[in-house]
Amino acid sequence: MTMRGRLIGxxxxxxxxxxxxxxPGAPAPVAESGLATLDxxxxxxxxxxxxxxxxxxxxxxxxxxxHLTRLADxxxxxxxxxxxxxxxxxxxxxxxxxxxxPSRPGAFRVEDVPPAAGRYRWALVLDAxxxxxxxxxxxVTVFPDEAAARSSADGQPADDPAAxxxxxxQQWTNAFATAPVEEAEVRSSVRAPATVHPLPGGExxxxxxxxGRLMADTLPSIGDRVRAGQVFAWxxxxxxxxxxxxxxxxxxxxxxxALEAARVEQGRAExxxxxxxxxxxxxxxxxxxxxxxxxxLGAAGARLGQRDETxxxxxxxxxxxxFTLVAPIAGxxxxxxxxxxxAYDEGTxxxxxxxxxxxxxxxxxxxxxxxxxxxxxxxxLEIPGMARPVVLAPHHIHDAGVIxxxxxxxxxxxxxxxxxERLLVGQIGTAxxxxxxxTRVPVVPGEAVLMEAGRPYVFVQAGGERFVRRFIEITxxxxxxxxxxxxxxPGERVVTRGAYEVQLASAAKxxxxxxxxx
Length: 518
Known about the structure:
This protein is α+β, with helices and mostly antiparallel strands. It folds into 4 domains: 2-159, Immunoglobulin-like (Sandwich); 179-197 and 357-497, Efflux pump adaptor protein, beta barrel domain (Elongation Factor Tu (Ef-tu), domain 3, Beta Barrel), CATH 2.40.30; 204-237 and 323-351, CATH 2.40.50.100; 245-313, Helix Hairpins, CATH 1.10.287. It is built from 6 helices and 35 strands. The strands form 8 sheets. Strands 14, 23, 24, 25, 26, 27, 28, 32 and 33 form a 9-stranded antiparallel β-sheet that branches. Strands 1, 3, 4, 5, 6 and 9 form a 6-stranded antiparallel β-sheet that branches. A hairpin with a 3-residue loop joins β3 (36-43) and β4 (47-54). α3 (245-274) packs antiparallel against α4 (280-313). It is rod-shaped, with a radius of gyration of 43 Å. It starts with a strand and ends with a strand.
């Protein structure tokens, strides 16, 4: 709960009447004698109360300007009645001042004479359909006269000049939400730069196996998913230079003659062996010569047939005389340099395939954090442009045990599943390695943390319509929770939605001309 007060001169009475309510930095409603106007902000589990009221004087009517917000969705309450309850500290029955239904969404008013002078425990009681609530506001003093009331204002703290005014009307109109700072246990973590790489064996390049011309029905495109063994194209080998038809035909005839001579020699050797006129080795040599001659004849005939087919089809070759290019692994095509009909030399890269359903994350762990990082129990990857980190499950963590001479860090490689292919090979981010340690610190939602020049900060709600910017020191991040060493304390509330609008309000030189109307 927060309270503040202001003492305003009587000269402002003609400018601002008691029927309005104040906002930070604006003239406050005042009594003719110049009494201070106070406000109180209080939260329960159901609603937020922001109430403005004058210094209370016995026998003098007071207007309580009440603003009530539903914490479930941070919308204004549109029905019900608000009542201010005064219970004497010394004991006795309470006095209750009850107001009418809201004059507009979120805006209630209670106007009546407070009880006799003295100290009271007071509360704001809400009677709304489906949402009864009670705000216990501590103690309040009803002064016997205006002189005593004015003297009490001297001890009130001054408003923070750095406070940012962001009115209830703005909060209710724009997307807005706050959350309390809580003390909780968070996992210790190590943050380090990380890069996404293909798995070992998760990248393959399909090259030209020989010099030739590329042919295919259709070529795949970059980004296409391929399966292992899928046919990409065919490579038709290139004929040797100077291989004219006459030369190839002569080679065939020469090979045919050599085969016939070898067969004749083999038959003579077999007859002589049968007559025991030659050793068995002579027959073996003749048979080998026949086999070699047959092979040479087949090769010469194939070269001649390939040339004839190439000339007949304008470049095509007969089936069996071409290489089939297939995908050695499943994945996605990251690069395609092949062109239909183009000629390539042996070894020219044509297709590059990368496996993307499972990748390797290389984390550069600072030397000082190596001991903790080796006890990884969880992993997240923060990627620029993504609102939330990607939760990953590390497998097969590889630790070389050697500090990199350039980065002075220990590279840790870990295999991770990549569902939905959110991680892109080559992508750079920040890895959050959760360890076994736990610390108990103030915790704020991750969405409340903003950055300025590399320094994290949050907007703290100091009052119903007042906010202050606080730079914080982060100790650890655990999922959507951020552990804070300094800057905020448990019980304070930070802005989780609408921080950009609060930032804009901080840059405004002035406030809207109109205030609240009750």
